[in-house]
Amino acid sequence: MKMRPKMWSGVLAVVALGVLAAAPRAAEGQDIADFDYEHLSLRGVGVEWGYLYPSRVERTQSYGMRLDLGYLGPGLRIVPSVTYWKSPFRTEEVEELEDRVAGLVQAQAGGPTPTVDLGTIEWSDVAVGLDAHVMWSIPFNFLTFGGLGVVAHVMNGNGSAINGTFVEDLLDSVTAGFNLHAGLEYPVTDRFRLNGQGRYEVLGDLQYFHVRFGAQFMIGENAPGEERGR
Q: What local confidence, expressed as pLDDT, does residue 35 receive?
């Protein structure tokens, strides 16, 4: 699923307005008076490790990277990211799917309901997201943020019993989702930061709480108010 630049601009505008409406005030020290996409440029690259608590699959780890594009407006930072995770379905989810497949076969072929064993089924996700962070500076050099994001989830189902079947087709999808998040950052130096955040992700019939921890390397300038010792 590809999004044209105009579509991305619309998404950015909606995210910006929504976060600003919920924010009591912008981060201090920002000089940008109006929203302007021309102010966005790559200024940092980060790697992340996380842990998910999902509704339909087992708890699992995640791996990802993010880009820091700087500030779209006063205190409003834009951060794209890519995250990957993979996990087996919970036993009760597989049993429910087996019952549905058995019922479908019985309805089409007649006779007694067959026994269906789908074995282990895994679900993986490549999540391409765009977050808007409302930033604040707090004591002891910490930065804190809260916001929301929009995400395209590329879901893939896999299992020896379902590969090449309609069941795999049902699990393979590209699904839009959104998240709410909040976190902390600590600038160890002006060029290196540590961060952590909690996120609640919603996509279709799957929801999960997600904690992430990461490190970011700054390749551009820090904004006023972000420096150590401010």
A: 59
Instruction: Please state, rounded to an integer, the average pLDDT across all residues of the chain.
Output: 86
**Residue 93 in this model has a pLDDT that exceeds 90:** yes
103 pLDDT more than 50: yes
Query: Which segments within 115-172 are labelled E, that is strand?
Result: 122-137, 143-158
* Residue 91: count of CB within 10 angstroms of its CB: 10
CA distance 90 to 93: 5
Rounded CA separation 22/76 (Å):
12
Q: Is 88 exposed, middle or buried (0-12, 13-18, 19+ CB in 10 A)?
A: middle
Q: What is d(CA 6, CA 122) in angstroms, rounded to the nearest whole number?
A: 35
| Amino acid at residue number 28 | E
Cα separations in angstroms, 153 against 111, 177, 191, 198, 204: 40, 7, 31, 18, 10
For residue 104, give every residue at least 6 positions away whose Cβ sits within 8 Å of its Cβ, in sequence order, or none: none
67: nearest Cα among 80, 77, 76: 80
Which tokens belong to 84? Answer: 């990957």
Q: Tell me: the pLDDT tens digits for 107-143?
A: 887 777 788 899 999 999 999 999 999 999 999 999 9
Q: Residue 162, by phi and psi: left (phi above 0), alpha (psi -120 to 50) or beta?
A: alpha
In the chain, the domains with their CATH numbers are: 5-89+120-218 (2.40.160.20)
pLDDT at 123: 97
Name the strand (E) or helix (H) holding 176. strand 173-189
* pLDDT above 50: residue 12: no
